[in-house]
């Protein structure tokens, strides 16, 4: 339980001032395949630190995004999600029934796969691919 998250370690290395409120937000974002909405981050943070306000959580998330330590992910046109897996390029696999999101690593670089004739002179710096379908649990219950 006491494992320090990657995110917390990275923030410590950067000398980010870790108040108890910031620490709780970083702890909530610990782990793999974490993609939480701001409201989910707030609800989980409040379980550990009941006095933490929604505004503090939102501001802290904004700072983490500005630092490049947390990604903002919008996969489904719903609420933005916050993803601490900011240093390993990845794409997302989304279940359109339950909304589960997995970090995935396709073979081949999505940036490189766009032919030059389709680039319209753009200097392209990022590419996002979202794979959608039914997760195994949802496929089972739909059967
Ligand atoms: Zn599902
Ligand atoms: Zn992700």
Automatic annotation (TrEMBL):
The prosthetic group or cofactor this protein requires is: Zn(2+)
Query: In Gene Ontology terms, what is one molecular function of this protein?
Result: zinc ion binding
Q: What keywords appear on the UniProt entry? A: DNA-binding, Metal-binding, Repressor, Transcription, Transcription regulation, Zinc
Question: Can the keyword Zinc be found in this entry's annotation?
Answer: yes
Keyword Kinase on entry: no
Q: Which residues bind Zn(2+)?
A: 95, 98, 135, 138
Q: Which family does it belong to?
A: Belongs to the Fur family.
Cofactor notes: Binds 1 zinc ion per subunit.
Which named protein is this? Putative Fur family transcriptional regulator
Q: Which InterPro entries match?
A: FUR (IPR002481), Fur_C (IPR043135), WH-like_DNA-bd_sf (IPR036388), WH_DNA-bd_sf (IPR036390)
Which Gene3D superfamilies would you find in this protein's record? 3.30.1490.190, Winged helix-like DNA-binding domain superfamily/Winged helix DNA-binding domain (1.10.10.10)
**Any single biological process term in GO:** negative regulation of DNA-templated transcription
The protein's organism comes out as Kitasatospora cheerisanensis KCTC 2395
């Amino acid at each position: 339980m006491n494992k320090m998250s990657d995110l917390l370690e990275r923030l410590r290395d950067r000398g980010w001032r870790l108040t108890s409120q910031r620490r709780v937000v970083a702890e909530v974002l610990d782990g793999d395949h974490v993609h939480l909405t701001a409201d989910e981050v707030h609800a989980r943070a409040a379980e550990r630190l009941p006095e933490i306000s929604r505004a503090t959580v939102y501001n802290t998330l904004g700072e983490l995004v500005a630092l490049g330590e947390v990604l903002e992910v919008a996969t489904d046109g719903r609420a933005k999600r916050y993803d601490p897996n900011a240093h390993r390029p990845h794409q997302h696999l989304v279940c359109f029934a339950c909304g589960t999101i997995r970090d995935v690593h396709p073979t081949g670089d999505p940036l490189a796969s766009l032919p030059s004739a389709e680039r319209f002179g753009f200097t392209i710096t990022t590419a996002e691919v979202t794979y959608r379908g039914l997760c195994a649990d949802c496929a089972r219950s739909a059967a």
